[in-house]
């Protein structure tokens, strides 16, 4: 898989070339060129903001179709905690579990169960010390990509543990192999994705070489079928296995859930990508080192705010709160003293130099001088008509060779005005001359 | 190419110096909400220039502390930032009360900040010590009643 694989794609026919997504992209990774929005692949963090804000629904996430599960002999589905907030009619976790089985899955493995193991490991690591404070959660893949690109300094603060989705996939496959005796490749692990960042984390993982998730199906795609299955289950009460996770795991779907489960009072939880960036600035400025843990979610309200979900994030968050109150504090703990390797990163997460102007430092100084010079001549209206998010970004694009000054409609208007006035003066000149002759 | 949300570049003047870059920031003296604008903008520029992350971090922390000091103690001032192939440096000039005893001011925890300023979470007496910690060279030239000039230098590795 390409290093710069992204699950966010554009429906070219639907794109009107407005600059809504360009303006809202937190890493300034989108430009409108030839009337269509284009993503600068190196800079995209798959946060899904463009999908969220596009008024023409031209942005989509490339998820796997549900029909892709057919090629597997045994199918395990991984519902994330945020899924439990999507439905109004849901008295308990068991209903959604039996409904998922009703859709043809052989087993259900709750991501929230794996999250409880990650919480346990996090508490142990914080207690043991040795990690750079504040420890930053590694659970949101969009935030992790943002740190790689914009805050490489802070990679050493990042919790080196697998995200619950990945851990759930590893455990689900082991369990399925043990139960069925089937080889690993016959077992299909299907994650129900609330956001494009998780889809990218499956195809192009961080902290591991290959994801154990085989398919990432969007919550939006399975939503209607699951609703129908839930209604059917609610009538017939089929027998089902019991739920796997407690309050701790379910809380991971909401902002503050993961941080709260660290059992420290010195924590901070921020959600929404702009807030996340501001908190990362504070950490980089060494102004939060008195905190133990920082939880950051790219989406507003946490994973319930993922763009592939159906329900309003705040409604979903409230439902999860109600649902979890009937559950024990936690249902999963690490046995023994050591944190099993299964929970740990097995590949380093390296910085990505997508924001620097030029790999040669001596060259970049000259480029910056040209950017400052061009920028000083632009109008500073940040209108976006050139297709770049700001005048500053246009100046950078010009120096990098991706755009020209004529892309600025105001500079172009100045040029046209100059030509017009010189034409007019020519006309006046010739009139005067003919008057002299007469 | 913002990873940072731009917090306003008001008061920035950039001169095209011979071999590098020169930025000037006017720091308003009464605006706590905007304190950190200059160091934030410089950090973004340094990142774009591809300067080593640790160097960027050091310089921007040091500059941030200096900028905050200007706002807390001196009613604002001007910051000139110079970037070339060898080093990044900042000259912070204020026309505030000056520092009577620089040695004392350099001690961790020593602060003359008002209760009001402390209530905002500033004035813990770590400003100057942090500037020293996060720079390769720190020069302080202060005259009581006239003002203070602080020069911060971080060399590029």
Give an overview of the whole structure.
The complex is a heterodimer of chains A (438) and B (157). With 438 residues, chain A is an alpha/beta fold. The radius of gyration of chain A is 26 Å and the shape is elongated. Chain A folds into 3 domains: 8-61, Alpha-Beta Plaits, CATH 3.30.70; 66-132 and 153-255 and 302-343, Rossmann fold (3-Layer(aba) Sandwich), CATH 3.40.50; 361-421, Electron transport complex subunit B, putative Fe-S cluster (3-methyladenine DNA Glycosylase II, Chain A, domain 3). Helices cover 41% and strands 10% of the residues of chain A. In chain A, the strands form 4 sheets. Chain A has a 4-stranded parallel β-sheet. A 3-stranded parallel β-sheet of chain A has the order 7-11-10. Chain A has helices spanning 20-24, 49-53, 93-102, 111-128, 141-150, 164-180, 196-203, 219-236, 247-251, 257-260, 273-284, 313-324, 361-377, 391-400, 409-437; strands spanning 8-10, 30-33, 36-39, 59-61, 74-78, 107-108, 135-136, 187-193, 215-218, 267-271, 293-297. In chain A, strand 5 (74-78), helix 3 and strand 6 form a beta-alpha-beta unit. Chain B has a single domain (13-155), classed as 2-Layer Sandwich (Heat Shock Protein 90). Chain B is built from 5 helices and 6 strands. Chain B has helices at 37-48, 53-73, 102-105, 115-119, 127-133, and strands at 13-15, 21-28, 76-83, 87-94, 137-143, 147-155. Chain B has a 6-stranded antiparallel β-sheet with strand order 1-2-3-4-6-5, covered by helices on one side. The model of chain B is unreliable at 1-11 (pLDDT under 50). The chains are: A alpha/beta (438), B alpha+beta (157).
């Amino acid at each position: 898989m390409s290093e710069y694989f992204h699950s966010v794609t554009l429906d070219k026919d639907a794109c009107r070339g407005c600059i809504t997504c360009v303006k809202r992209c937190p890493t300034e990774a989108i430009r409108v060129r030839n009337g269509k929005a284009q993503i600068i692949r190196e800079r995209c963090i798959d946060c899904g903001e463009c999908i969220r804000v596009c008024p023409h629904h031209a942005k989509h996430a490339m998820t796997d179709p549900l029909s892709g599960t057919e090629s597997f002999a045994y199918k395990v589905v991984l519902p994330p905690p945020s899924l439990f907030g999507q439905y109004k009619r849901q008295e308990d976790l068991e209903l959604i579990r039996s409904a998922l089985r009703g859709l043809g899955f052989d087993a259900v493995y709750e991501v929230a169960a794996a999250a409880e193991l990650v919480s346990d490991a996090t508490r142990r690591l914080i207690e043991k010390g040795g990690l750079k404070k504040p420890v930053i959660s590694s659970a949101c893949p969009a935030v992790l990509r943002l740190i790689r690109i914009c805050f490489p300094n802070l990679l050493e603060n990042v919790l080196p543990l697998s995200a619950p989705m990945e851990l759930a996939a590893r455990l689900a496959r082991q369990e399925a192999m043990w139960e069925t005796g089937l080889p690993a490749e016959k077992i299909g692990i299907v994650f129900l994705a609330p956001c494009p960042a998780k889809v990218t984390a499956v195809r192009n993982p961080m902290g591991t070489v290959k994801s154990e998730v085989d398919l990432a199906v969007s919550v939006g795609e399975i939503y209607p079928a699951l609703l129908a299955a839930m209604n059917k289950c609610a009538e017939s009460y089929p027998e089902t296995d019991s739920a796997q996770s407690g309050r701790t795991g379910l809380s991971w779907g909401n902002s503050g859930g993961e941080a709260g489960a660290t059992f420290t009072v010195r924590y901070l939880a921020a959600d929404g990508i702009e807030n996340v960036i501001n908190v990362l600035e504070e950490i980089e400025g060494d102004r939060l080192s008195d905190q133990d843990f920082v939880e950051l979610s790219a989406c507003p309200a946490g994973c319930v705010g993922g763009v592939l979900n159906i329900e309003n994030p705040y409604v979903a968050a409230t439902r999860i709160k109600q649902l979890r109150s009937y559950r024990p504090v936690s249902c999963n703990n690490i046995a023994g003293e050591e944190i099993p390797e299964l929970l740990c990163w097995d590949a380093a997460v390296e910085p990505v130099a997508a924001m620097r102007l030029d790999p040669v430092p001596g060259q970049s100084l000259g480029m910056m001088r040209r950017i400052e010079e061009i920028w000083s001549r632009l109008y500073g209206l940040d209108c976006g008509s050139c297709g770049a998010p700001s005048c500053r970004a246009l100046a950078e694009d010009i120096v990098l060779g991706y755009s020209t000054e004529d892309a600025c409609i105001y500079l172009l208007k100045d040029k046209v005005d100059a030509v017009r006035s010189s034409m007019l003066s020519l006309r006046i000149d010739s009139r005067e001359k003919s008057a002299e002759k007469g | 190419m913002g990873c940072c949300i731009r917090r306003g570049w008001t008061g920035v003047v950039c001169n095209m110096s011979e071999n590098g870059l020169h930025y000037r920031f006017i720091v308003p003296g009464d605006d706590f909400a905007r304190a950190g604008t200059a160091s934030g903008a410089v950090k973004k520029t340094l990142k774009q220039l591809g300067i080593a992350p640790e160097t960027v971090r050091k310089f921007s922390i040091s500059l941030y502390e200096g900028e905050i000091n200007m706002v807390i103690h001196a009613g604002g001032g001007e910051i000139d930032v110079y970037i070339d192939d060898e080093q990044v440096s900042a000259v912070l000039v204020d026309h505030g009360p000056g520092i009577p005893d620089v040695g004392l001011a350099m001690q961790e925890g020593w602060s003359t900040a008002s209760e009001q300023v402390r209530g905002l979470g500033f004035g813990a007496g770590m400003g100057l010590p942090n500037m020293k910690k996060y720079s390769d060279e720190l020069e302080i030239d202060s005259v009581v009643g006239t003002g203070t000039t602080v020069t911060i230098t971080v060399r590029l590795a």
